[in-house]
Amino acid sequence: SIEVPTNFIRQIIDRDLAEGKNEGKVVTRFPPEPNGYLHIGHAKSICLNFGLAESYQGLCHLRFDDTNPEKESEEYVRSIMEDVQWLGGQWDGEVRYASDYFDILYDCALELVRQGLAYVDTQSAEQIAEQRGDFKRPGQNSPHRERSAEDSLALMERMRAGEFDDGAAVLRARIDMQSPNMNMRDPVLYRIRKVTHHQTGDRWCVYPMYDFTHPISDALEGITHSLCTLEFEDHRPLYDWTLDHLEGYLRGRDLLPARPRQYEFARLNLNASVTSKRKLKQLVDERHVEGWDDPRMPTISGLRRRGYTAASIRRFCDMVGVSRAGSIVDMGMLEAAIRDDLNTNAPRAMCVLRPLKLVLRNWPEGHVEQLVAPNHPQDESMGTRSIPMEREVFIDREDFLEEANKKFKRLVLGDEVRLRYGYVVKAEEIVRDADGEIIEIIGSYDPDTLGKNPEGRKPRGVIHWVPATLSRACSVRLYDRLFTEENPDKAEGGFLAAINPASLTLCAEARVEPNISVAPESRFQFEREGYFCADPDSTDAAPLFNRTVGLRESF
Ligand code: ATP
Ligand code: MG
Ligand code: MG
Prior knowledge:
CATH class of the largest domain: Alpha Beta
Distance between the termini: 31 Å
Subunit structure: Monomer.
Keywords: Aminoacyl-tRNA synthetase, ATP-binding, Cytoplasm, Ligase, Nucleotide-binding, Protein biosynthesis
Structural class: alpha/beta
Enzyme class: ligase
GO molecular function: ligase activity
EC number: 6.1.1.18
CATH superfamily of the largest domain: HUPs
Helix content: 25-40%
Bound molecules: adenosine-5'-triphosphate, magnesium ion
């Protein structure tokens, strides 16, 4: 695995280990909510949590934070497991679910009530919100704040038994309605939601809130370092409050293998992109893209389909680093990571995106010659392949002009160019259709130019090509950025208004050389066109490639 640069969290762990904390153990967790597919931001958290566990010989848990049943699904659970695994995250033991702990969480809630630290509030959500105040205005106590523990316990049992409707009652922590930290103003710990849960079915109709669930789940699992993004910094006092008051109770039940601590790091944001599951879901639901794994999406599954390797995403996360300073990372950095990987590891091949036929009149009819091409210009170990050459070949429309100055290093009427790994050819005549469009070029080749220059003449350049009948028809999807704005979230009219209408170009008539694999996930540099990956839908009968990234920085 890759050498991981140090960061402030590693320094905290090193200090904890030096002080002998947590019996020398490091246990982290990656805690996604299964309410969407994972995106590139999650990759940062995955690399951090699983990476720390690996380098400290500790453990990392995969735990679904599944306390909002109405927004979650088994489909999301499955996709998240697949994406974490693909990125190389190896979780310890079984996959965990916060819902595994619903019984203990409920017991913990009752325990807080017994300690006089929580009460059932039967006001409406609006009343509660109104009394909460805001940054300028202190909160007001609920009229139910002094409800006795007995009454709250009885109400809590009735809530659990389904006697109340959604929203009719909540359990709140009794902390401080004057706190400058809004999260400490008697936050809701439990609410009623009469919906079927993807893991627990209809067993529960009261569900714990994230801020209550998270610290307890961490404690139950013996998590030592609970890493989250900076928005949760203001939630840390509640995290600690919860554990401070339940530590004794959990220890008494032998359920506190470690006292976890929360640390925050900056979220990853990518320019010209959105990294919020809610917004990504909107792109999918409103059909701006074809699905969560559309190659234009910044989701892990989208990037995978686009042709990104897991190693390149891990490399990118290392380059970004981990700190508390938020910043927007340039998409070019993500592209550089995959370009570096594929430049080294992807075999070369030729694919003509917009074919134009070139007929070589002096090439013997029916004759086929096998030309030999190296699969990688710098890596002999990647071997060679043969490319059949015949009388008719395809070149790219953009590689031909009737007239051009010397700067045009491609084929021009009356002039010569070399076909990559092949002969020097000359364009002599143009064939047009009824509309005047060029449909064919007629020319000739110089048989004495394979692997050597013609005497006394200099061809304009070298272009890629494929044999006309012996190549394979294929489709190629070229992608541009999904958003036209640097920061789509700040776009006038919202992020949807910043969608690039030309983010996908389909080359439906492309042709690729024959002796290469078109099986899903085959990756190539198609010479002069960029790096490509065969789509999961690619078959021998209908090869389909996605352009992962161009050869050079495009933005
Ligand atoms: P979103 O806003 O996209 O829904 P989230 O934080 O609500 O993100 P979770 O499923 O709760 O999504 O995330 C799981 C873990 O991934 C959390 O620990 C979270 O801090 C981390 N994470 C999510 N987004 C990012 C990001 N952009 N950069 C770094 N870490 C992230
Ligand atoms: Mg979250
Ligand atoms: Mg979220």
